[in-house]
Amino acid sequence: MVNAGDMNGSGNLMDFLDEPFPDVGTYEDFHTIDWLREKSRDTDRHRKITSKSKESIWEFIKSLLDAWSGWVVMLLIGLLAGTLAGVIDLAVDWMTDLKEGVCLSAFWYSHEQCCWTSNETTFDDRDKCPQWQKWSELLVNQSEGASAYILNYFLYIMWALCFAFLAVSLVRVFAPYACGSGIPEIKTILSGFIIRGYLGKWTLLIKTVTLVLVVSSGLSLGKEGPLVHVACCCGNFFSSLFSKYSKNEGKRREVLSAAAAAGVSVAFGAPIGGVLFSLEEVSYYFPLKTLWRSFFAALVAAFTLRSINPFGNSRLVLFYVEYHTPWYMAELFPFILLGVFGGLWGTLFIRCNIAWCRRRKTTRLGKYPVLEVIAITAITAIIAYPNPYTRRSTSELISELFNDCGALESSQLCDYINDPNMTRPVDDIPDRPAGPGVYTAMWQLALALVFKIVITIFTFGMKIPSGLFIPSMAVGAMAGRMVGIGVEQLAYHHHDWIIFRNWCRPGADCVTPGLYAMVGAAACLGGVTRMTVSLVVIMFELTGGLEYIVPLMAAAVTSKWVADAFGKEGIYEAHIHLNGYPFLDVKDEFTHRTLATDVMRPRRGEAPLSVLTQDSMTVEDVETLIKETDYNGFPVVVSKDSERLIGFAQRRELILAIKNARQRQDGVVSNSIVYFTEDPPELPPNSPHPLKLRRILNLSPFTVTDHTPMETVVDIFRKLGLRQCLVTRSGRLLGIITKKDVLRHMAQMANQDPESIMFN
């Protein structure tokens, strides 16, 4: 196997790039970048800057600015991502409450803000104040009764439909790429794929606006995944301002990795979790330098969000909890059970959602995205309104489920029967028998759980921005809270059982149902996304529950094991495969005993490989070859007889070089000889001027022999990010293997449809 470390070809490439060729070194849409080439170009650029910096003070200052540009980009990404997240949070709060009523003193206040400013609010009725009026009070001056309920119900549905229709229309007309979560595409882009416009300015603007609308509409989706897309759009925008990143696709992807970390940082108020999420889940190439920069971007983003203080509690998150009871070893059993539930729910969700999305792609359903969004929104609003746990925003629901029941809690979930003789401190309330409110809440939660499980399957993947983190956490939190209340009541009524005897004495505060909700949320999120380390860190940063890392770890690992038993793919990988993107997953193992010769093209019975010769083809021959084929590049050989390999020429650069030569060089005509050698070939006296294209030739293409195991070839493609690899025997060219060939072979070996891989 020839080592690609020798970059002779790239040095020549830089000479070619120094000439003012438009679009040179760029890639076509829906194509994969060449990581080795991008790396060598950056090394050459850096070498040139370093050598120039010794010539003058100005060049030295320019070299310093170049070195600092990375940190400046991170600072700008953090500031913009944090600001956008804060604005989205504030807007969502206001528009969610707008479905139920309006603040008379200032219509731009949410329900909570409206009652903060009121002097007539009592502690017991802190959600009620004269300044905040429901629509029925405002329109027909009635707050109770059937007519008021029906009017509020009707307006709730109307507002939801209005928000959803506006969102899907904006996406459809202005930015089709603003739909979905964005994480599958971000993963694919970070692996080296080009999707032009996916991280553009219009996508950023429309995704930010429509994200507010869809979350406010009450649909079963979250804003956390799309915030990663928004942050990456910010990263792409600021990258384009610095030539170091705008002209090098490999360097740009380092910035996007850090931007993804900033996105999770502001989505969950979890800067360290964001860095780990980018490292574990999203990034393909993550050098140490990117780790530091991700950390800095996540820090700035979190600081900016904290300065805006969207939740009004001086914290980065909505779900901050403080539990006053430690957990006990016996509780690990229900925690692991929640992990099993999370794994099963993850598997069920992925299979059903992918089946529904495939149906959407292959049937007439996909032709009516607006109608689908309106229908799902109407069903969601009609079913959600009667149940208080589905009517409120999902974030508020999770917050309530995570909460511990203190003496000041007015939630139904905290309606326990109190002992009148209790003289305990406020924060150490013993376990008590459940009151009627808890039993009502339990069956309402059970109905909400079934509804959330079903509706999320149909909601994720519609043509609107839709995140999956919050709905998954809500499913787990509801299941966890119910299990927690069950264990709590079991411990209260049967404290003499052997499992409770050692740690749960009568009158003690033993079980915290909120902790079970937290563990359940982590388990379900882990089951759907297959995250482990970053998930646990995000969860304890999200809630402040540092003491509960072991239960969270137990649930996350269990949910991953259970889900992996049914299939290795997480939801994002499943959507990548559904869309046919060329993504070589690092986690996939290739264990089959095939060889490079089994995969390379041309295969037996196929036409011979299209090649260029080093000094015997005319400009017309090359143009004809380009016109008649759609390959991304052509191997260059000594002659068609010897087929000894010289190098590799990219299709795009051949087209640009010939076009440029025709415009700028006199004497270059259709029958001019094209040569890739240092010296021109000997030509008859009256021959037209030859065209030298050695500058665009990669003299060190990556090659393997025909007997190289495919296991090794897959590893090379994965670790070096190759676009193609040439197959030789004793220096003679036999064939070529592209990334698409590798992915199709892997799909075939896994008994999947190889034609599902659609892009190069």
UniProtKB/TrEMBL annotation:
InterPro entries: CBS_dom (IPR000644), CBS_dom_sf (IPR046342), Cl-channel_core (IPR014743), Cl_channel-4 (IPR002246), ClC (IPR001807). Pfam families: CBS (PF00571), Voltage_CLC (PF00654). Keywords: Antiport, ATP-binding, CBS domain, Chloride, Endosome, Ion transport, Membrane, Nucleotide-binding, Repeat, Transmembrane, Transmembrane helix, Transport. The chain crosses the membrane at residues 68-92, 153-175, 195-215, 227-243, 255-279, 332-356, 368-385, 441-461, 468-487, 515-540. It is a multi-pass membrane protein. Belongs to the chloride channel (TC 2.A.49) family. PANTHER family: CHLORIDE CHANNEL PROTEIN, H(+)_CL(-) EXCHANGE TRANSPORTER 4. This is Chloride channel protein. The lineage of its organism: Eukaryota, Metazoa, Chordata, Craniata, Vertebrata. The gene is Clcn4.
